[in-house]
Amino acid sequence: MVxxxxxxxxxxxxCVLMEAFFQADCAVxxxxxxxxxxxxxxxxxxxxxxxxxxxxxxGVKQLIVATNKMDSTEPPYSESRFEEIKKEVQAYIKKVGxxxxxxxxxxxxGWHGDNMLEASDKVGIDKLTLQFQKVAxxxxxxxxCSKVRFQxxxxx
Length: 156
Known about the structure:
By secondary structure, the chain is α/β, with parallel strands linked by helices. The chain has five helices and three strands, in the order αβααβαβα. Strand 2, helix 4 and strand 3 (104-107) form a beta-alpha-beta unit. It is globular and about 35 Å long.
């Protein structure tokens, strides 16, 4: 049974996400690439699917996919694991409405900082450079958006 506070916290988080999506030109979808973690996120009720669908539905037309925890793949920084994740995510985001050819896929390690601020030598630099070039060409709108507010009533 879900407690009232847990339900409230989940609703607040989703409202903040939705408000951010309404104002965003681009979304960064961060995916855990560890064994089991990616599979849970991309499963039928996984958060990876949910967040990609929400982003597109709420008007975010540009997407960057960051595959995090590449340092914890087997072997570490596995290019085959990155390509496996990329292939599966491309298939899903195409169903959602994104053009996979325009989506940048960037392998990262938040723990070690690889490819977070600067390109890392632990990942194929040529492929990564192409992805960063794709990101740099994303157009940004200059439309000012008014804040969207949500009021939720929770029946207890």
